[in-house]
Every structure is written in C-alpha cells, then in structure tokens.
C-alpha cells in the first residue's frame, strides 16, 4: 500500500490537485486522502483506491511476487529429497 500511496500523491501533484479537491471528487475526506498518501490509514477499501487510480488512468491489479526467502518447510523438503 505504501507504493500505491506514493503513486497517488505523485499523480495528484502532477495534475495540480489538492488533497481536498481529490477527496471531494471521490466523496472522501481530506484526511483519508492524506492517510492513503502517507500510508498512515489503518484500513481503506480497495474500491476507493481503485476508483482514484482509475481516475488517473491506472488499473489496480495483483501480480505474484517472487519469493524472497525459502520457508523452513521448503528447506526441510529440499534437504530430505537430496
């Protein structure tokens, strides 16, 4: 979510919109927009974030991320299969 907030802030500033103007456009409070941009909001509906991104011409999607580290279980399996 942190990178989404940064993206929304960048897009908003590129279009010279205030947080208040963006909030009014989507029926949210300025505090909600600030929370999204600063990753300080505890919960935000995905539909709200998606609506903002769609308004900027972006699409919200999920992609698999590469595994960072092997899990303990995968290490055990690899060890016992050798």
Automatic annotation (TrEMBL):
GO terms for cellular component: cytosol
Domain called HTH cro/C1-type: residue spans: 8-63
Keywords from the named record: DNA-binding
Xref: Gene3D superfamilies = lambda repressor-like DNA-binding domains
The record's section on Pfam families has: HTH_3
Tell me the InterPro entries matching this sequence: Cro/C1-type_HTH (IPR001387), Lambda_DNA-bd_dom_sf (IPR010982), TransReg_Diox_bact_type (IPR050807)
Signal sequence region: none
Name of the featured protein: Helix-turn-helix
Instruction: Enumerate the GO terms in the molecular function aspect.
Output: DNA binding; DNA-binding transcription factor activity
